[in-house]
Amino acid sequence: MKKDNSTEEKIKQAAKEVFISKGFSGCSTREIAKASGINVALVNYYFRSKSQLFALIFNAAMEDFTNTMVEVFGRNLSLPEKMRILIDKEYYFLSNHPELPTFIINETNRESGISFANAGFFEKMTKTGIFEQCIEAQQKGEMRKIDLRNMTLLILSNCHYPFMSKNMMKSMLKIEDDQWKEAIEFHKIHVTELLVNYLFPKNNENEK
Amino acid sequence: MKKDNSTEEKIKQAAKEVFISKGFSGCSTREIAKASGINVALVNYYFRSKSQLFALIFNAAMEDFTNTMVEVFGRNLSLPEKMRILIDKEYYFLSNHPELPTFIINETNRESGISFANAGFFEKMTKTGIFEQCIEAQQKGEMRKIDLRNMTLLILSNCHYPFMSKNMMKSMLKIEDDQWKEAIEFHKIHVTELLVNYLFPKNNENEK
DNA sequence: AACTATTTTAAACAGTTGTTTAACTTTTTA
DNA sequence: TAAAAAGTTAAACAACTGTTTAAAATAGTT
Fold this sequence. Notes:
The structure is a homodimer.
Chain A: H1 6-22, H2 29-36, H3 40-47, H4 50-73, H5 79-96, H6 100-109, H7 121-128, H8 130-139, H9 148-164, H10 166-173, H11 177-199
Helix pairs in contact in A: 1-2, 1-4, 2-3, 4-5, 4-6, 4-7, 5-9, 5-11, 9-11
The structure holds a DNA duplex (30 and 30 nucleotides).
């Protein structure tokens, strides 16, 4: 059938890069075509429309985005251990994909945005058993009584925002790239202690 | 000279709304014109170009954005008090301007973005004396030894991200608007305790 | 080899983009 | 009130947008 899939793949590859760094409305079909070294018409030949190509890229990105969380929460470990490993892995992942959180948030906010398959995140999370594990730990008094939505938000805030705000922080604090990188290293340590201490307080003051 | 400034002001007003909710490349001059009920040509008549109008809006937004922090840090209060009041005020401000952090971060990331006057944030922060106050508190052992860049990032992460991620979280956690609002109320309390406890630890374990 | 199906191309499409023009109305000035 | 200035308008501009077309090139099949 197909000669080979290199053209289709080349487009996907370039589209991923361009879409994620510039957003859906921040780039054109021709820009993607040029980035992949192919003719403009081929984008629609293989993917029917800019929107459909975008939906493909977005869903894959969403999958990558939530992967770490689902994977780590699914392990057979104590909650504090999961937390430490998760933060470590998130910081490592985001060091290599710093534009991803901004991309997801932007496209989720865009009106007339895609229907948003969501990659079944909630179901996957439930399947890991993390919710039961948390509730059990809370009943045993090992974990602070906190709604799990808030727990999730605390984790994501402290992992995603530092990377999202890189350029803003550099400008606001008048620092350069290497200083930012240094700060992020320390930040990971702070965030880990911050969250672990808060969610799993020492026994001397277990209440409130 | 001018008949009155209502036209100029109408454009600014509409531009602010449209730019902040859709971003620079997410909207057109004609959209702003339509939103302010004026002729397209008047946008360039009053502001020379889309870019120049944008720069105006952006700088004002940046000012609003950093206002609370500078104002609260400039008060004559203890550090934990400042922290509690700041978080409270940020959550209140962002409830009314939830799109602002995403807007600032996006436009700071956009390549060929504006030169970014930055509204002299760093200088204003220095002038409040917050840095000296922190260093003094750290020497006294009242505050955790943490780089002030990391402290700033911790605060902003936990204030901005919850509002930025609203739609994403609603979709990921399968919740509706009222449930999100409820969660945010609790979140503010968590964030306050989280940060105050971490930055100003109880006397029994001042080290580390 | 000829025939069919797939892939690639340049060109065109209709609509939108930021911006400018030149004519007009209204306001201010003298 | 007449002249100058400021404000407003519809129309045009060239460049760009997503998408389609129809012809050309290539591959696979018999």
